[in-house]
Design goal:
Peptidase family U32; alpha/beta; TIM Barrel
Amino acid sequence: MKSKAFLSQLGLPAGDAYHLPDSTKRFEDGGQYRFEVPGIQGPGAMKALLSEVERLELSIHRVTQTKGIMLLSDQEITDMVGLAIDGKTELVLAIGPRATTDTSASVNTPEGQRMGYRLRGQDQIVRAMEEVYRAVELGCTSFLIYDEGSLWIFNEMRKHGEIPAHCHFKVSAHTGHGNPCSAKLLESIGASSFNPVRDIQLQMMAALRQTIDIPLDLHTENPASTGGFIRHYEVPEMIRVAAPIYLKTGGSVAKTHSWDTTADDAKKRAKQVSLVKRMIDAYYPEAVASPK
């Protein structure tokens, strides 16, 4: 088949990797996996999460806010940065401007929803850049992005010394990417980690891993609004074929992506991490987690 031959010529997978090969790639510390808890929208929920994680004797490596930097006060950002430092975890703040908060009604129509959270107009790009500048000044250097064009300009900001070189840009599942060619493109324009679509299957994960070196951010469970599925039993295989990966855990506690997590919800998300860790310990005990 000509298409498969040409993909192979470019060094890309000729198809999905149904043979599910082991991934030999690792985080820089040698780990195969890390835990990420998404949907922690403010310092109250974050404090409750980290306290419960400590009580359960767990390690989480990343806490992600999804509603947007523009909805946080300077004090809230500073408090979350402080909690991240004390808890020895990475804090990821989401870029606030997006199609659903813009003045266009298109995104609220059945066909317009296809634009996802992407940005409309250069003014929205400027606003997104301002969010990054502001958060960096307040001590945060990891960001969740929903728009490929904004990723490109953030990478240029990083290359030109406008922001620290170690700034991390995580591409959200809401951009709608799920194939190796898209992953290759995102890596080439500055993605530090990539979250493919939520229902991606193991053979697809394996093909992605053959294509890119950056970590994959993979959902172990999902809010009701995006399917509500729980994939805990698949996690050992996810690690084996797709390492290095962030295991995005706790989403099933929420009803929607931007769910305003309460302190009690945060404790429930910590419990979900413990359930996934049990699966790893039972079915892939030799898997190596990154240190805290």
